[in-house]
């Protein structure tokens, strides 16, 4: 009855709570408002719906996942003060009591799982039963049943029992015939069964036995196949060495003691079966056949007690019953055969009937006869440069002199010492105790050692050179010979010892080679150049150096005299052969500008760079570091070879030179296309260029400041546009030792001043643009005056405010004053004469200055008249021309290129003009622009700049500060002064026609 | 039965002069709303920074400590701090309530044109005439900038910061966007010196005004030009521009004393609001309401839409 009831109930599946019965006449209950539908945990705390784990209710600390301490676990121990021992964290460490509770994800209490719960696992059924028991005539009857019921019998066993099965028997219908046969017939074969083995025959022999008619047998119990999980990484079938097996005696052990042959027993004891007649000794599956053993009888066998007869008259099957798993049940009688069989095939496998086709093995290819299994890397870097750099830095920083002569460049890395490797890697030296005996030596001793070394070196070089001469002459292209012959006749008075001038002083070896070459040249040796080159260098490098030597010899032939001797060499040399350039290259600005003009924004105007934000910045922005592994910050830079200027200068009739150029140029031009374009275009607003220059200089100086201790890591990359027969030797030009960097405004001011002098070679546009700043610079007073009269000048009575010059036109404003970029609107229009803008920085002759003033005033007026941009531009051009003619005398030196430039009466101007011209024509690679600027600054400082300190504004002050600082530098730092001189001398040498002016100046 | 949705009102433009603040601090170099638009900062050329309630017209505090004129200011997200930058090359972090200097960041080589907080106000990002952008940490006491971005070839005129990007406009005509999330720097060349940049509300577009009297709306992802807005005059000065509160309009100062409003989509000049005779230098749009602050010469003017004015009038 109850069962029926329960059956009836069974048909329904109930979900959730049943609705309460609605009684008639009762008022509808008010639904519980949402805020009162609360859930409490076991401690009575309210739980808010959380939507996460634990049934969607709050977890952790007040609905956070953290704890009271925040993210840090309460066991957190700061490693700063006390090292906390590393502890392995279990998942349980991160669980709270709810997780470990009854309904958590990892319940801790011991409870019966469903598998073992009871025979009736069906919850619904159970419930139904409960209900039934309540409604049953004898209440509680089923409860009794529950009490009696054994806790753990699986339903299968229960069913079997009901079907009459007894433990120990096999499953299946009882058989009349021999159980074995019955088994065999009854066994369904899944998959591939083992083929009938020879064991069958033996069984057939035993068939003549007494068989009672009416006796039925239960089928044989089957030992379930034991699938042991492979949980190690050993090979299949591997078993480690069992010490018992190894150490047990040669006793023929036949463990027949365990009658049931259960796996358990055997596994408990371990497999102690020794092979028959085996000697004592270590043997196991891990070991192969010993030398003294004739045969390894059973390599892959798995022993078990079930291999042995344990029951009389027990029928033997293969025990697999269709499983193709490892055999568990083995025939003892057929042991020998089995063993033989097993030795052929693994357990569970059988030998194939048809042997698998052999894999064809192809013989390896024949090596060519002259093949040598060694790869030679061509030396990429000029080997001398590393060691020389090493030597120099060592000597300079008074660390330890290199124990080896720097000429040993072919040494392998094993021969390098730590410091040399450090130099190669570009690391800085450790500051600390001297590590070498040489450190203790006095400077004098060191010098002596160095000299001795160098002498030895030189001899070595000579010997090498001689030895390689023949070799080289073979490789020497005829073109070089031609150029040599071409070049040498007009070499003229080549300096014997290259005078005091050392163009490659930065690289002692190179300088040495150069001197050698000069010497050879002087003696009229034809092959002097070749012999003086470093034989260890690559052909390409040699070609480059050859060109450099030739050109420098040509350029400096006349300058060995008193002039060069007047200047000393710089103290600090910048010894880098490499420059850092942006890895992601910027597109050409000209292209972009044209794209902008066509309003084709997008891909054409966009540059994408990889940019590495600082880790801290990412942290502050709450953003994962996009480059977690990288230590780089900012834009990735790539080190590129910095070539000397000579690479970019061509002697047109030199074929080898052009090839060199071709090789050199792509790298350089692509390394900084930006800069070339900047100077090439001499941009639409000169202010921009100044801004760029300034920013560049500034960033460089900034960078240098940081690396002041290790001098000169950065230098401007060469952005040399090719094809000018003038040269400015960068390699030799030292970087200034900047303690206080010259203000950017100096440069600007000077540019603005010098921009008055125009060269007709530069295009008109840029001239007109360039003049504007000059106008601003020269006559700020007038400018303010005129500006105040303009209608756009807002009139605001704020007389206390500092005056900002009002420039209403962007074009006018460009480059003017200290302002960069857009201006701030003016505040007052009142003209305060005392706070006028920058007065002419150069104490030019009064008439000249006045003339300038006049001119700029004119210009300014002209500009004022024309509101429209383009119109104005045109007009200004005209105006410019007029002015030019008018001021011909003043700027006489401006016209023409430097080759045709006429002698200038005004020495100071000429001196200014020269670098200006250089800049304009981009003759000087970018790396030397700064030097040019310093040069200009230097010149202007020599022409006695008077600092005007009238304006208290910060920027103005900065300008003067810059001036003062610079002057102070000039005055105090003699090394800088000499550097300046060096630069000047170089420039003079490069542009020989300007020498006279500079000579005047000095 | 649902009522038909009310017809969305056309976006209002702040065309009514609501109030005029005489700042008394020289030229007002910049006026900025705070994060919720209830207060504003004015940067004076007399070295002072002032905090106002523009809606009531009261000055709340004056912050003195800069050595030269203040050029830009920003308020932190929790209104507890201000940062301002100045021609004296420093950036000052102010405590709003006490008016004290919390930090003074030095490092720029020139005057600092613009300053911004990041979203959490843990970093101050400044752009200077020295062509570098520097990120200053407000949390640690380190005097050095966290990172210096000196990719610009000329002065930085404007900076905006989103949750993961730093947008900068430079006088070299490049719009540079540093994306921290992807670790990229994207440079868009606009050809003319950029005076002001801003993000749109949906962070999909960038607005850049440049000295060729043009504002350009640039697609952030591709760099393509979405719109150009002309009609105002901006050739010399660093003038502000922005988008209206709902990105419906583009607003820019002009040198002819007006503030110009363009329809963002159509690109048509909708309104030319005459503000003063001189140059309108700075403006700031309320983050949520059609309310505009303009700074010209020494005064700040508050402009609101008509309805808002009515509202506030009724409130008064």
Automatic annotation (TrEMBL), chain A:
This is G-patch domain containing 1. Residues 671-688, 699-717 have a biased composition (Basic and acidic residues). Residues 446-473 form a coiled coil. It comes from Leptobrachium leishanense (Leishan spiny toad). GO terms for cellular component: nucleus. GO terms for molecular function: RNA binding. Residues 722-731, 890-905 have a biased composition (Low complexity). Keywords: Coiled coil. GO terms for biological process: mRNA processing. Residues 850-887 have a biased composition (Basic residues). It comes from the Eukaryota. Residues 396-437, 481-507, 658-911 are annotated as: Disordered. InterPro entries: DUF1604 (IPR011666), G_patch_dom (IPR000467). Residues 152-172 form the G-patch domain. Belongs to the GPATCH1 family. The keyword Coiled coil applies. Residues 762-772 have a biased composition (Acidic residues).
TrEMBL record, chain B:
Keywords: Cytoplasm, Repeat, WD repeat. One of its GO terms (cellular component) is catalytic step 2 spliceosome. It comes from the Eukaryota. Pfam families: WD40. Signal peptide: none annotated. WD repeats lie at residues 21-62, 63-104, 105-137. Its main location: cytoplasm. InterPro entries: WD40/YVTN_repeat-like_dom_sf, WD40_PAC1, WD40_repeat_CS, WD40_repeat_dom_sf, WD40_rpt, WD_repeat_MORG1. GO terms for biological process: mRNA splicing, via spliceosome. It is found in: Cytoplasm. The keyword Repeat applies. Belongs to the WD repeat MORG1 family. Molecular scaffold protein for various multimeric protein complexes. Acts as a module in the assembly of a multicomponent scaffold for the ERK pathway, linking ERK responses to specific agonists. Also involved in response to hypoxia by acting as a negative regulator of HIF1A/HIF-1-alpha. This is WD repeat domain-containing protein 83. It comes from Leptobrachium leishanense (Leishan spiny toad). The lineage of its organism: Eukaryota, Metazoa, Chordata, Craniata, Vertebrata.
């Amino acid at each position: 009855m109850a069962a029926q009831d329960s059956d009836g109930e069974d048909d329904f599946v109930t979900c959730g709570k049943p609705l309460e019965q609605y009684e008639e006449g009762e008022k509808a209950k008010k639904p519980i408002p949402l805020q009162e539908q609360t859930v409490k945990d076991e401690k009575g705390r309210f739980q808010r719906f959380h939507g996460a784990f634990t049934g969607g209710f709050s977890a952790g600390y007040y609905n956070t996942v953290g704890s009271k301490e925040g993210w840090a676990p309460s066991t957190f121990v700061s490693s700063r003060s006390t090292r906390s021992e590393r502890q392995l964290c279990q998942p349980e460490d991160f669980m709270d009591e709810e997780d470990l509770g009854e309904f958590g994800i990892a319940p801790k209490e011991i409870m019966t799982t469903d598998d073992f719960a009871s025979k009736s696992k069906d919850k619904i059924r159970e419930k139904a039963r409960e209900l039934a028991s309540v409604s049953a005539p004898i209440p509680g009857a089923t409860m009794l049943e529950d009490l009696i019921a054994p806790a753990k019998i699986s339903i299968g066993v229960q069913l079997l029992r009901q079907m009459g099965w007894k433990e120990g028997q096999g499953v299946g219908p009882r058989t009349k015939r021999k159980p074995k046969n019955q088994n065999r017939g009854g066994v369904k074969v899944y998959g591939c069964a083992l083929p009938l083995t020879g064991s069958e025959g033996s069984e057939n022999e035993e068939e003549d036995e007494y068989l009672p008619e009416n006796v039925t047998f239960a089928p044989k119990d089957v030992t379930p196949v034991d699938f042991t999980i492979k949980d190690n990484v050993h090979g299949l079938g591997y078993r480690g060495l069992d010490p018992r097996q190894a150490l047990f005696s040669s006793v023929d052990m036949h463990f027949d003691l365990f009658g049931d042959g259960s796996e358990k027993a055997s596994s408990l004891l371990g497999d102690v079966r020794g092979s028959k007649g085996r000697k004592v000794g270590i043997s196991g599956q891990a070991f192969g056949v010993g030398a003294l053993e004739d045969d390894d009888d059973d390599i892959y066998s798995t022993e078990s007690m079930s291999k042995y007869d344990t029951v009389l008259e027990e029928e033997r099957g293969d025990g697999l019953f269709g499983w193709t798993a490892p055999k568990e049940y083995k025939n003892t009688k057929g042991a020998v055969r089995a063993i033989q069989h097993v030795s052929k095939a693994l357990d569970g496998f059988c030998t194939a009937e048809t042997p698998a086709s052999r894999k064809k093995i192809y013989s390896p290819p024949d090596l060519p006869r002259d093949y040598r299994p060694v790869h030679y890397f061509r030396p990429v870097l000029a080997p001398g440069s590393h060691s020389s750099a090493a030597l120099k830095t060592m000597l300079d920083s008074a660390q330890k002199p290199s124990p080896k002569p720097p000429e040993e460049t072919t040494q392998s890395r094993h021969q390098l010492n730590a410091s040399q490797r450090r130099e190669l890697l570009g690391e800085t030296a450790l500051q600390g105790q001297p590590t070498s005996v040489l450190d203790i030596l006095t400077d004098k001793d060191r010098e002596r050692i160095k000299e001795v070394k160098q002498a030895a070196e030189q001899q070595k070089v000579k010997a090498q050179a001689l030895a390689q001469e023949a070799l080289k002459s073979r490789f020497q292209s005829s073109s070089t010979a031609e150029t040599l012959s071409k070049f040498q006749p007009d070499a003229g008075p080549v300096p014997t010892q290259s005078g005091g001038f050392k163009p490659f002083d930065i690289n002692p070896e190179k300088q040495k080679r150069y001197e050698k070459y000069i010497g050879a040249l002087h003696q009229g040796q034809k092959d002097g150049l070749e012999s003086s080159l470093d034989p260890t260098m690559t052909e390409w490098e040699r070609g480059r150096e050859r060109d450099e030597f030739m050109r420098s010899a040509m350029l400096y032939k006349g300058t060995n005299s008193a002039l060069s001797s007047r200047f000393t060499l710089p103290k600090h040399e910048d010894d880098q052969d490499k420059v850092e350039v942006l890895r992601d290259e910027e597109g050409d600005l000209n292209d972009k500008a044209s794209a902008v003009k066509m309003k084709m924004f997008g891909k054409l105007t966009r540059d994408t760079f990889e940019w590495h934000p600082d880790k801290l910045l990412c942290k502050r922005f709450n953003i994962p570091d996009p480059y977690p592994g990288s230590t780089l910050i900012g834009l990735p830079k790539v080190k590129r070879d910095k070539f000397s200027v000579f690479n970019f200068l061509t002697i047109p009739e030199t074929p080898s030179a052009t090839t060199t150029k071709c090789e050199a140029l792509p790298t350089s031009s692509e390394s900084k296309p930006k800069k070339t374009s900047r100077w090439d275009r001499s941009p639409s607003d000169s202010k921009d260029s100044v801004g760029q220059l300034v920013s560049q200089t500034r960033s460089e100086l900034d960078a240098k400041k940081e690396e002041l201790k290790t001098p000169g890591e950065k230098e401007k990359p060469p952005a040399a546009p090719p094809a000018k027969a003038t040269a400015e030797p960068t390699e030799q030009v030292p970087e200034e030792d900047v303690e206080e960097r010259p203000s950017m405004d100096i440069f600007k001011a000077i540019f603005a001043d010098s921009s008055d002098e125009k060269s007709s070679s530069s295009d008109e546009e840029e001239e007109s643009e360039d003049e504007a700043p000059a106008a601003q610079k020269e006559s700020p007073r007038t400018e303010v005056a005129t500006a105040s009269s303009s209608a756009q000048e807002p009139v605001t009575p704020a007389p206390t405010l500092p005056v900002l010059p009002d420039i209403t036109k962007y074009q006018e404003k460009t480059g003017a004053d200290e302002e960069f970029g857009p201006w701030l609107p003016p505040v007052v229009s009142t003209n305060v004469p005392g706070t006028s803008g920058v007065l002419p920085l150069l104490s030019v002759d009064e008439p000249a200055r006045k003339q300038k003033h006049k001119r700029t005033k004119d210009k300014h007026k002209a500009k004022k008249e024309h509101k429209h941009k383009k119109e104005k531009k045109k007009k200004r051009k005209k105006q410019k021309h007029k002015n030019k003619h008018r001021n011909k005398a003043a700027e006489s030196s401006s016209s023409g290129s430097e080759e045709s430039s006429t002698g200038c009466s005004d020495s100071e101007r000429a001196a200014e003009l020269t670098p200006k011209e250089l800049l304009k024509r981009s003759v000087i690679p970018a790396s030397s622009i700064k030097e040019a600027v310093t040069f200009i600054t230097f010149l202007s400082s020599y022409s006695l700049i008077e600092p005007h300190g009238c304006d208290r504004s910060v920027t103005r002050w900065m300008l003067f500060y810059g001036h003062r600082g610079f002057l102070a530098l000039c005055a105090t730092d003699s090394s800088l002064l000499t550097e300046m001189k060096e630069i000047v001398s170089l420039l003079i040498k490069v542009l020989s026609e300007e020498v006279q002016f500079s000579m005047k100046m000095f | 039965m649902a009522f038909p949705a009310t017809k969305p009102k056309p976006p209002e433009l702040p065309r009514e002069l609501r109030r005029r603040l005489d700042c008394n601090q020289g030229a007002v170099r910049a006026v900025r709303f705070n994060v919720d638009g209830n207060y504003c900062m004015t940067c004076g050329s007399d070295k002072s920074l002032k905090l106002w309630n523009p809606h009531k017209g009261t000055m709340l505090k004056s912050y003195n400590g800069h050595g030269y004129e203040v050029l830009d200011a920003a308020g932190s997200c929790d209104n507890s701090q201000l940062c301002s930058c100045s021609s004296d090359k420093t950036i000052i972090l102010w405590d709003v309530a006490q008016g004290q200097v919390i930090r003074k960041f030095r490092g720029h080589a020139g005057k600092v044109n613009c300053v911004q907080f990041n979203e959490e106000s843990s970093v101050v990002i400044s752009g200077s005439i020295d062509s570098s952008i520097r990120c200053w940490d407000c949390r640690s006491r380190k005097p050095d900038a966290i990172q210096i971005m000196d990719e610009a070839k000329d002065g930085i005129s404007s900076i905006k910061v989103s949750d993961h990007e730093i947008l900068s406009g430079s006088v070299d005509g490049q719009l540079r966007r540093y994306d921290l999330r992807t670790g990229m720097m994207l440079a868009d060349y606009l050809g003319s010196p950029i005076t002001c940049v801003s993000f749109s509300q949906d962070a999909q577009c960038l607005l850049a005004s440049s000295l060729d009297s043009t504002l350009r709306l640039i697609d952030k992802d591709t760099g393509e030009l979405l719109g150009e807005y002309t009609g105002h005059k901006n050739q010399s000065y660093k003038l502000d521009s922005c988008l209206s509160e709902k990105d419906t309009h583009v607003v820019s100062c002009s040198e002819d004393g007006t503030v110009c409003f363009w329809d963002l989509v159509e690109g048509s000049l909708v309104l030319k609001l005459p503000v003063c005779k001189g140059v309108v230098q700075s403006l700031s749009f309320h983050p949520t309401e059609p309310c505009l602050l303009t700074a010209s010469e020494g005064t700040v003017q508050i402009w609101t839409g008509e309805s808002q004015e009515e509202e506030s009038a009724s409130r008064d």
